[in-house]
Amino acid sequence: MASIISDQICQELAANVVNGTIPPGHKLEEQVIADQFGVSRTPVREAFRQLAAAGLIDSHPHRGDRVIDLDIDQLSDMFEALAELEAMCAALSAERMTSIERKQLEAIHESIRPLAGEEDVPHYSDLNEKFHDTVRKGAHNETLAKSTKRIRQRLAPFRQPWAYRKRDRLSISFTEHEELVNAILASDRQRAHDAAQDHVNNNSVITIEFLSAANQD
Q: Nearest-CA neighbor of 89 among 144, 47, 48?
């Protein structure tokens, strides 16, 4: 339960940092945040730790926890790395996924279909993580899966649900998923590689454009 509360606090604070509501240089006070969310300082402290790991705040024993300026170039580098890693996972999944894993991937994809039509962003976002996790596991390469997941977690604050509302991104994302699923089911390594890479790159462009605009405001 404590972990869930920390995650919720982290997600809300991260969204406010990313969209500029909490400006660079702003000092975050544990007790103030705890009062705001009606919780003890323990989950707030864990949320701050997650924000620091994501590179959103700078934690210093004497200066406290302060919001830092977003480094767009560093984010671009991480998104580029993620696209390559996700593409490698997809390529290996096209070759290595078992018949059961392929059916599981299909089932997850089909469960997402009505959410795309209904513009159900919160549930779509949750199943999107499950979808990508299934592709990673299907590669049957633990080192690659862990490396990919690590970068996805680092970028999590910058992959907020608002991205799906940009340029009909929800329906487009589902279409991109479908291309990836079809490639994996066809055991087409190159097609799966390209589909995954294009999908991450398209998400990256939208996110970087949003953050760049927010930083200029």
A: 144
